[in-house]
Amino acid sequence: MERLYVSNKNESVRMFKSDFMEFFSHVHPATPLVLYLPVVGYMLYAALWRNALPILVVAGLFLVGVLCWTLLEYVVHRYVFHYEPKSRLGKTLHFVVHGVHHDYPNDATRLVMPPSISIPLAIVFWSFFGITLGRFAPAVSAGFGFGYICYDSIHYAIHHFPMKRGIWLWLKQYHLRHHYADDHAGYGVSSPLWDYVFRTTRK
Fold first, then answer.
1. Hey, CA dihedral for 52, 53, 59, 65, is it positive or negative?
2. End-to-end CA distance of the chain
């Protein structure tokens, strides 16, 4: 039976000399829910009532948005978060962006993306969908945003909730193997789909 590692919510490290920067490096895990669930709700409203799309079309586009998120999650985790820089500055940036999570994986206040980063990125992606997809953009955007919420929520739960049975236990074990056995495999957190597609499951 695989070992499940015990969470320590107080596990942390100071990242910045500036108290201002240090304060904003800690984010409450409910932040994505508070910020983005209302936006997802509005996007669904816009798709169904403002743009008058059939509900089955909205459901299909919503799933496309979720799928787009899972692919982005995989690509960013594999190629950005696990890029190995050579320069001192690069190594410092890498530690701030993701290295701190691997060194202190149970720091409860550093498991979700800070709004100072997530909000500009959300604007960029939702603007891209708006420009390229027209009246279909709100439905895809809703799925994309929901995928992000699921990612941050599942990631927090993996590190801090028991998740003792079923698919939840499987997801927990899958992600903890990435932390404690092989960090060059298992890049999917909310879904292992793209690990299977690109053959980066643990060998």
1. negative
2. 18
How big is the CA angle at 183 (ends 179 and 188), to the nearest 5 degrees? 85
Q: What is the mean pLDDT of residues 23-51?
A: 90
Closest CA to 158 of 52, 5, 3: 5
Average pLDDT of the chain is 86
What pLDDT, in 10s, does the model give residues 122-146? 999 999 999 999 999 999 999 999 9
Residue 172, token pair as written in the block:
């927990």
Look at residue 23 in the predicted model and tell me its pLDDT: 58
Q: Is residue 110 exposed (0-12), middle (13-18) or buried (19+ Cβ within 10 Å)?
A: buried
Alpha helices in 46-200 (DSSP H): 55-75, 88-94, 100-103, 115-133, 137-160, 166-180, 193-197
> Rounded to the nearest 5 degrees, what angle is found at the Cα of 82, between the Cα atoms of 103 and 122?
100
